[in-house]
Amino acid sequence: xxxxxxxxxxxxxxxxxxxxxxxxxxxxxxxxxxxxxxxxxxxxxxxxxxxxxxxxxxxxxxxxxxxxxxxxxxxxxxxxxxxxxxxxxxxxxxxxxxxxxxxxxxxxxxxxxxxxxxxxxxxxxxxxxxxxxxxxxxxxxxxxxxxxxxxxxxxxxxxxxxxxxxxxxxxxxxxxxxxxxxxxxxxxxxxxxxxxxxxxxxxxxxxxxxxxxxxxxxxxxxxxxxxxxxxxxxxxxxxxxxxxxxxxxxxxxxxxxxxxxxxxxxxxxxxxxxxxxxxxxxxxxxxxxxxxxxxxxxxxxxxxxxxxxxxxxxxxxxxxx
Length: 321
Hints:
Elements: H1 16-29, H2 32-39, H3 43-57, E1 62-64, E2 69-71, H4 73-97, E3 104-110, H5 115-118, H6 122-128, E4 132-138, H7 145-148, E5 152-156, E6 165-178, H8 180-186, E7 200-203, E8 211-216, E9 219-224, E10 229-231, H9 234-242, E11 247-251, H10 252-261, E12 265-267, E13 276-283, H11 292-304, H12 315-320
Parallel strand pairs: 3-4, 3-5, 7-10, 7-11
Antiparallel strand pairs: 1-2, 5-13, 6-11, 6-12, 6-13, 8-9
Helix pairs in contact: 1-2, 1-3, 1-4, 2-3
């Protein structure tokens, strides 16, 4: 008796979990290009994977337009069940790897001024975790963690509502600063209103608040920074302030060494609002599902970043102001 060959042969060479992950990202991001950015592949690769998945299943999963994709009923069913499958797979892998040695690449994004905090800690971090590879990027522009493919970003100030998870590292105060030579030539402002006669150094990116806050007689006062001098790099701002370019508002931790050495002088401290600004390490994903390499770096930063000195000026500095 002849036996007909099976009509369906298991295709073990197909990366079904990979296809499912790409499909779920397309469904969540709403477009091939957004999913491609998140996954670090080209939009054409995503398109080919989706076409292959639909051909293999014999069902249309997505309705495509020039800007967005929409799930068909079959696609919606696959999406709902696919999410659960991927979550179970992540749980399985994490259970196997939670206690493994942290190793691999960890990409950290931070401002140039925060690099001043991280720099002294890096040698100890590398000694503690010799199998880590650190990829450090410093920019004062706030980047999208997905687009930058960053595992961790260190951010100063109040965080906007987003899908990132934040771990508080500490707080810092902002202080008004100028070089002694600048103050000798232009005079020391006695009230916030006096700043209008001075060169004011501000930021030039869009998210910046265009004024400096003060408290005068218990009431909030805002002084416009104006268009006199603007930069996009915190360390550049610090350096040109030391050179006597004008008056700037910087984080106390950033200017600490310069104030202590007399290169910068604090002004208008009597009108400082005293508000403490938080510094966070932010990341994407669930805290209990982080890879060991990312968790190790986050735990290290939480344990070793010390900003207590940046919350208040020492008494001897206050007397000198």
